[in-house]
Design goal:
It is a single chain. By secondary structure, the chain is of the alpha+beta class. Helices cover 22% and strands 33% of the residues. The protein has helices at residues 2-11, 54-62, 84-87, 103-115, 167-173; strands at 27-29, 37-39, 44-46, 88-98, 120-125, 128-133, 138-147, 150-160, 163-164, 182-190. The strands form three sheets. Strands 2, 4, 7, 8, 9 and 10 form a six-stranded mixed sheet that branches. A two-stranded antiparallel sheet has the order 1-3. A two-stranded antiparallel ribbon has the order 5-6. Strand 7 and strand 8 (150-160) form a beta hairpin.
C-alpha cells in the first residue's frame, strides 16, 4: 500500500484523503495478498477528489511505478457500487508443488477431494486452533502440468465474508507434504449480481 500511496502522490492524481488526525489516501485493495503469494490479479479502489479519465490515470500513475508493477486497466465507477472487497467471490491460483506422485494418481486425488461433501480441517492461528470445513472453500481444482519432480495445480478458492481458501492448505489436504514451491494468484472473480 505504501508503494501505491507514494506512486499515486508523485503522479499528481487528485487523491481523496481519509478524515482524522493522520489523513491517508482513500484506497483499498480488493483482497490483500498473503505473504509468499505472487500475483497478476490485483484489484484496487482508489478515490479521487474529481473525475479523471482512465487513460490519463493509467499513464500518470504508470510512470511512477517500479519495474515489474503495472496497471492493466482502470475504470471509473459509481460511488454507489459496493467496494471491490465486498464483490470478490473467488480467487484463482497456480500452485507448484514438489511430488513423486504420478499424473494419474494426482488426478484421482483431485477428483476425490472435489467429490467429498465435507473435509474437516484445523488451522493453528495466533489465537488458537480454528476448525472448519476446508471443502466448502474449494470451488475447483485441476491439474495444469506435471514435470517431475514438480506438478502445477490450478485452484479456484472461495474468498468472501464466509471464508477464504488458502492454496498451501489445499495442497496439504491433497496429500502434498511439502510446502508449495510457488503460489501465484492469476484471477479474482467478482459477484455477477
Amino acid at each position: 500500500m505504501r508503494l501505491w500511496q507514494r506512486a499515486l502522490k508523485r503522479s499528481g492524481i487528485p487523491l481523496a484523503l481519509t478524515e482524522g488526525f493522520n489523513p491517508h489516501p482513500r484506497m483499498s485493495t480488493a483482497v490483500p495478498l498473503a505473504i509468499e503469494i505472487t500475483s497478476e490479479a490485483e484489484l484496487m479502489d482508489i478515490f479521487c477528489t474529481r473525475q479523471v479519465s482512465p487513460h490519463w490515470f493509467t499513464a500518470a500513475a504508470g510512470r511512477q511505478l517500479p519495474a515489474g508493477i503495472s496497471i492493466m486497466q482502470a475504470y471509473p465507477v459509481s460511488l454507489m457500487l459496493p467496494s471491490l472487497q465486498a464483490q470478490v467471490r473467488y480467487a484463482e491460483y497456480t500452485v507448484k508443488v514438489e511430488t513423486v506422485m504420478e499424473r494419474n494418481y494426482i488426478e484421482e486425488k483431485l477428483t476425490a477431494l472435489m467429490a467429498a461433501e465435507h473435509l474437516p480441517w484445523q488451522h493453528q492461528r495466533d489465537t488458537g486452533i480454528r476448525s472448519y470445513d476446508i471443502r466448502a472453500l474449494i470451488d475447483g481444482l485441476w491439474l495444469i502440468d506435471t514435470q517431475q519432480p514438480y506438478c502445477t495445480l490450478g485452484m479456484r478458492l472461495r474468498c468472501d465474508n464466509n471464508g477464504s481458501g488458502r492454496p498451501e492448505q489445499v495442497a496439504l489436504a491433497l496429500g502434498f507434504d511439502r510446502h508449495p514451491e510457488s503460489m501465484h494468484r492469476t484471477r479474482l472473480i467478482l459477484n455477477a449480481a
